[in-house]
Design brief:
Layout lengths: L8 H7 L1 H14 L6 H14 L3 E5 L2 H11 L7 E5 L4 H10 L2 E5 L21 E5 L10 H11 L2 E5 L7 E2 L2 E2 L6 E5 L13 E5 L2 H11 L3 E3 L2 E2 L10 H11 L2 H19 L14 E2 L5 E4 L3 H10 L27 H9 E4 L7 H17 L4
Parallel strand pairs: 2-3, 2-4, 4-5, 5-8
Antiparallel strand pairs: 1-9, 6-7, 6-12, 8-9, 10-11, 13-14
The structure holds pyridoxal-5'-phosphate.
Pyridoxal-5'-phosphate binds next to α4 and α5.
């Protein structure tokens, strides 16, 4: 039986071992571990990659989003519209900023925030929209920005799963007033530990994010804001600089695997393949199928040596951290929690292994009584 891993992070680093080791040693020998040249260079290189004015490295993706909201003065008394179908981290960032997340249901086809459901959630306290470009698929920003402009709402993108995605020619990172990225190890661009980054075209906003991330200081030892300690470190920045040179190639390899999956799935009626958004260059952080027989299929695949994951089994509003305050059902989101299944996906997934997974999928469908 072919042994398949969902995502082998050591294999990612193996491809670049010599370069990563050189970068790590450079930092270890430099004597500078925070607030140095590596972070400054990575911020410049990431901003240039995205076509944004500038970038600020922070401690992780959750704080990237939280600090942008706080830098915009969004907090206590504010409501923030957010994808209901997302990582809990998106909601936690809004809560930690002091605001209240207000769920917006996804489009059942794209699984992304449904622009048609946004206006129903807007009230007198609404101050921002946080669309999530989930699974590497860009959300419908043209419609979202029109609604935001009409109601004078800020838009902050959670692009933690969409490094390098595009809408037409427009890069992720330039679609909203500010964009937060996680650089967690499993993301399309991932560090060897926690990391995150904020990009924007608004230099003043980024200056505030930078202050908030470092004790609220502009000048050393003079805190103008009650800030945090949320800094990207030199070691992670040096490693990320190496990996950034491969991001486009890695994303193209993911796209090739996604096309292979889509082709194989077209013949299986009981499985819904992910829907494409017109004009979108998706970077396939996950390849997520839907089926009524999710749990049975998952068991069959596991029995045959193909691991899968569920993103996400409990929607934020149903998690114990939020459930008390969110009695309203979100039917589409709740249905997705029961039907979505993430197949193995990474730049290191070979064509041969992907082919094996597709064949296993066909035999598992039959065994699970789905065909
Ligand atoms: C990973 C992720 C985050 C959080 O990032 P961390 O770096 O783990 O804090 C936020 N939103 C989404 C959509 C994510 O996938």
């Amino acid at each position: 039986m072919t042994k398949v891993s969902f995502l082998d992070l050591a294999l990612v680093n193996h491809e670049l071992e010599a370069e990563l080791e050189r970068a790590a040693l450079r930092v270890l020998r430099s004597g500078q571990y925070l607030r140095g040249a590596e972070v400054e260079s990575f911020e410049r290189e990431w901003a240039d990659y995205c076509g944004a004015t500038d970038a600020v490295g922070v401690g992780n993706g959750l704080e990237a989003l939280q600090l942008v909201l706080e830098a915009m003065d969004i907090g206590r008394g504010d409501e923030v519209l957010v994808s209901a179908h997302t990582s809990i981290a998106t909601w936690l960032a809004i809560s930690h900023a002091g605001a209240r997340p207000v769920p917006v249901e996804p489009d059942p086809h794209t699984l992304l925030i449904d622009p048609a459901c946004i206006e129903a959630g807007i009230g007198s306290r609404t101050s921002a929209i946080v669309p999530v470009h989930l699974y590497g698929m860009p959300a419908d920003m043209d419609r979202i920005m029109k609604i935001a402009d009409r109601h004078r709402l800020a838009v902050v993108d959670d692009a933690s799963q969409a490094h390098g995605a595009r809408l037409g020619e427009r890069m992720m990172g330039t679609l909203a007033r500010a964009t937060a990225f996680s650089l967690y190890p499993t993301k399309n661009l991932g560090a060897a530990g926690d990391a995150g980054i904020v990009v924007s075209g608004d230099a003043q906003l980024l200056r505030r994010v930078r202050m908030l991330a470092n004790y609220g200081e502009r000048e050393r030892h003079c805190s103008e804001l009650r800030g945090y300690n949320s800094r990207l470190d030199e070691l992670q920045a040096a490693l990320l600089r190496v990996k950034l040179t491969r991001l486009d190639d890695w994303n193209q390899r993911r796209r090739a695997r996604a096309a292979q999956y889509a082709e194989a799935l077209s013949g299986i009626e009981a499985i819904t393949a992910p829907g494409a958004t017109p004009d979108a260059y998706a970077v396939w952080h996950q390849f997520v199928i839907q089926t009524e027989h999710r749990d049975a299929l998952r068991r069959e695949l596991a029995r045959r040596g193909v691991p899968t994951l569920v993103h996400y089994p409990i929607p934020p509003h149903r998690s114990p951290a939020y459930a008390d305050e969110y009695p309203e059902p979100q039917p589409i989101t709740e249905r997705l929690a029961a039907t979505v299944l993430s197949l193995p996906m990474s730049a290191q997934l070979s064509e041969t292994t992907c082919h094996h997974i597709c064949e296993t999928l066909v035999s598992s469908v039959a065994a699970a009584g789905m065909a």
